[in-house]
Amino acid sequence: QVQLVESGGGLVQAGGSLRLSCVTSGRTINMYAMGWFRQAPGKEREFVASINWSGGSTGYPDSVKGRFTISRDNAKNTVYLQMNSLKPDDTAVYYCAAPARMFTGWLRSQNDYDYWGQGTQVSVSS
Q1: Over the chain, what is the mean pLDDT?
Q2: What's the DSSP call for residue 85?
């Protein structure tokens, strides 16, 4: 049974930084892309970042590009999301996700992900 557990969320002032972690249990992550998504109150869940199986390729939407960095430590079965220059608009519940199948590249679509964590709250005050 694959389980993903996020941590690292919290309350931060605008311009601050947070690092989210996602630990996977039930399988090793080293052959799978991983992703981060977020959902703000009253809004649909949206793509935030993804990384391919080796860590050699990453993808971001324009809204976070240059501010957020996804990385992975396969030895620790952990994926990270470093968030810098945070804005109030970044306030949301952040979810880690993993696909059931192996892909070569990173994945943008929620439909490609099969396993989801419970989420961690990130709140950015102005």
Answers
A1: 97
A2: S
